[in-house]
Amino acid sequence: MKKLLLPLFIFCFGALHAQKIERIRAVSTHTFVEYAPTVSADGKTMVFQSNNNPYKAWFLYESTRLKSGRWSAPEPIESINTFGQRPTEVNGFQTDFIATPCLSANGKTLLFSATFRGGKGGRDIYYARKINGNWTRPVNMGKVINSKGHDDCPAISADGQRLYFARPLKDKKEGQRCYKLFVARKNKRGYWQAPHPLPYPINTGCEKCPRIMSDNATLLFASIRKGGKGGFDLYKAVLDIEGKEWVELKALEFLNTPKSEEFATLTLPDNALYFTTQGKRNDDIFRTKKLPTYMQLKQNIGVVGVATSAKTRQPIATNILVKLQRNGQAIAGKHAPRQGFRLVLRQGYQYELVISAEGYQTAYQKVDLRDWQKPWLKLDKIVMKPQEVLVAKAHAAPQHLPKKAIGEALLVDVKTGEVISKADEAKALANTTKLARHRPENLRPLESLKAYKKLIFSHLLFDYNSAKLDDKTLGYLQTIAQLLKKEPQLKLEISAHTDNHGTHDDNMNLSKQRAQAVKEFLVKAGVDVKRLSAKGYGETRPLVPNTTVANRERNRRVELKVL
Fold first, then answer.
1. CB–CB of 444/412 below 8 Å?
2. 285-311 per-position pLDDT tens digit
3. In this structure, what DSSP letter does residue 170 have?
4. Helices and strands counted in the chain (H then E)
5. Largest Cα–Cα distance of the chain, in whole Å?
6. How far apart are CA 519 and CA 561, in angstroms?
7. Topology of 300-384 in CATH?
8. Which class is domain 2-295?
9. Which ranges of the chain have pLDDT less than 70?
């Protein structure tokens, strides 16, 4: 087999060089290994691991792009390389394992794996920051990220909200160690949540070295899978606009050979791809600028704005929820200080910003980036009006409700038990490009609750990753409150459900909070608290398989069960 592969590899590698793939001579040697290159998005800083030292230990090295376009001679990153066990005659010149570096898009944060003393497991993920041109001492990512085993190959998204990394498996393929790829996300308070495996088609059994590009969407990773050319091949996938599905999976056929290609990074100014593969003797660092069109990154637009109080005319802090205008799906949420907000949104879509602040009415701002070509969009000032007070006591109707909390006219699908508003169904029927999900002959006005054992609300909307009800949902619930008052003998169980994204504990907690939020609104609207119970089931009771975006939308729901 080896006799067959060697000539084939030589042929393929020669073909690569014909495609202007060059070995970076300034950082690559024939004697030592240069591995796992990472380059900042602006193409000015490179970090890699190498055993180019008297101890042949794995250390991290840094090179900078010169004005001539060449790379400088690499320098060891002493603040990291000397952090752990130092090689001495007493310890047999042993050192810690330091490897798989990855720069953030702006080049100011460096992540890597290491075996420093005091870690959470075998190899842990650490980070260092560049301050005044120097790298700080390493900081452990903590027990939420690091396991008792090995955690390797970290990569952080440009917005700092997602961390990708790999954990080794017991399996090997073609003599190579296989890994499973994971992602961890920050919650709205900025804390990392428990990681979970990336879904198919990313994880198929033998993956390695995930790298998320500066567009926050394109993932480059190595994999040994069916249809590959041999060893680890490079693949790309794109996170869809809703942040749920990995699409556009494609092998980097122009680059892959029977040998292993790993640790790929795309840089923006020169549209270059850096990676590791076998050189004449050892692994070296290579670059190619001849990229096919499918390697182009997604275009992002910076959207900035400031919210001001209509009463004081001064800027105020707000919470921003970003929704896709086409389906109302929440895709991002963040807290914005008084100075204003900055969002990074993908070009080619229409968005709606939902801006909220305590004591103010919710404001809505349309953002159309379908044809926007500039890198920035500055919004006009967003004026927040003081909130009208909702006065409600148990067993009594509210004295006043905001306009959007007035009861919605609701319809129930007698076949499925799903509840929608008349306005939403009219929009669906009028949309000639998309058929309504509910057949008109199955829809009936919701005028009584006792006629149904269970009602399903897939259209009750909450702020992103929170239990805060939006204004439209208040309208739905006000109608339910009115019906409950007409039928005082009825008791309800309120159950909230999520899709299968996120951890089980997070989903259970979030669903409990959402069920409780619905219960509290109904009580404030005049329903006796003794008639209501609230339960959260997380992802444990899906209506349909969580295999598509549409199915997951149906599974994110609130149900009312008549007891």
1. yes
2. 999 998 999 999 999 999 999 999 999
3. E
4. 6, 37
5. 86
6. 13
7. Immunoglobulin-like (2.60.40)
8. mainly beta
9. 1-19, 87-94, 387-409, 421-442, 458-468, 470-472, 502-503, 549
